[in-house]
Amino acid sequence: KAALTPPGFAPTVDQLRACGYHFVIRDSSTTAPTTATCTPASGEGPAPRVLRLCPHCGAVRVPRSHHCRTCGRCVLKMDHHCVWIGNCVGHRNQKYFILFMLYLVAGTLTYTIFAVPMVVELHAAHSPYLEVYSYSLNTFALSCALALTVSVLGMGGYNVVLTCLDLSSVEMAQRQANMRYVRYRERVV
Question: Catalytic annotation on 82?
């Protein structure tokens, strides 16, 4: 479900026009328009609003949305583009991604726990029928499973903590960059 559920894309000006909104796009000195004024088609309702547009895809910049270079669209509450599921992690599929990470942690941990006694028993057997490469192959498989378990546990834990803090990894990276800039300015001043 994490791979097949769309992450939730920000609406484009064309989609909002199809819903009955009129737009006046302000052309600035840059190559792509950055703002638009939106009014309902009926003329009734709220006052016209100035909306920011994404300079890359032209979608309306909703708060907490970010442009994904891989997908080529703005994603609502974008966390990151995951190469393992081949999809962005955003507002609509974040729950499925967290569950995917938890199931991955449980699966790798279960494999590692059940593989340890088998490898220990294989090494203790000293059977002449067992060849040397089976010892090394099983030990290598166990060490790979242990490394995968530790790395998946770290990534899953990080994503669960960010979800509990209601932050995305993009927002956390922006916070850390802002903190580095503040520390740099304090040092300079």
Answer: yes
